[in-house]
Amino acid sequence: MSQRRIVVMVYSGAQALDIAGPIEVFDTVNRQLSTTGAGYRIQFVSADAPLVRTSSGMVIEAEPLAAGDGPIDTLLVPGGWSLKEALDDRELVSWIRRAADRSRRVASVCGGAFLLAEAGLLQGRRATTHWAYCEDLARRYPAVTVDPEPIFVWDGRFVTSAGVATGIDMALALVEADHGAAFALEIARFLVLFFKRNGGQSQFSSILEAQLADRAPIRAAQEWILQNLEQPLPVPEIAERANMSVRNFARVFRREVGMPPGHYIEQMRIAQARKLLETTDLPISQIARCCGYPASETFFRSFGRAFELTPSEYRRRFQATSPSGLIVAPGEAEMSGQAERSIA
Hints:
two-stranded antiparallel ribbon, alpha/beta, Arc Repressor Mutant, subunit A, six-stranded mixed β-sheet, single chain
């Protein structure tokens, strides 16, 4: 089996971890497959060759862009603090467009999605980037469907990942596509990762933490919601507690928090469910009740919409603690399977 060619386009001011994270994954594959001749041939190219200084000062030795000619298996484009300058470099953007045409698949880390979009490669596609820049990506490239929640998005032959370290998760997904899930898990274990995260894992908890309201009544409402997630939480009742009309409360809440109250409540319920699935062995039916879902079926549907995984699947993949007992109570495995089929 021949090696797959990975071409990494680097530029002055690129973020080192955007590059080093995925490359360490691919290099580890090479070491594991050293006797087979399979794995990856990694090549760095840059308009700033031969020595390219990243934003942290780390220097990468690269070849000129012309060395990236010919068929490419995977084109990798990082982000960086000098992204604005890179976007203004028409020669660089044009090279990315031409190189993508020669690539089996194209991947970006963090702000690298901007370069793919600038090259016209993400039009009509779903993509993501670091949560702090998703609004900017959507505003600058309205033909791109920007999803701020997943840690990476795979649309056709294009894979875009969120902030910085999620490039490692994306690289593991590429390895899984090439060599199978069991081998990708071996690589994750060798790299001493706690778990191999699926692209469905969300970055929305960081977004919500960054969107605490400035106005005291709305901030108090947020705090009350978090303390009472097991309750029904009708919006009129929350508005009354804030001494505001329902209409005014909804308007101000959306302006302050960035989403309607009902959407915020739903995301808080899901965020709490994630935490309980990752850190406890509570039966899923009990988690559903703790998070305000009186019916487990409703919980399965909401969770499936958020992650495209059932709660049981999410727990198996992402549980950060060692399970000490039964995870799924009797009868829940069948219900989870039914929910999974309904999601599909």
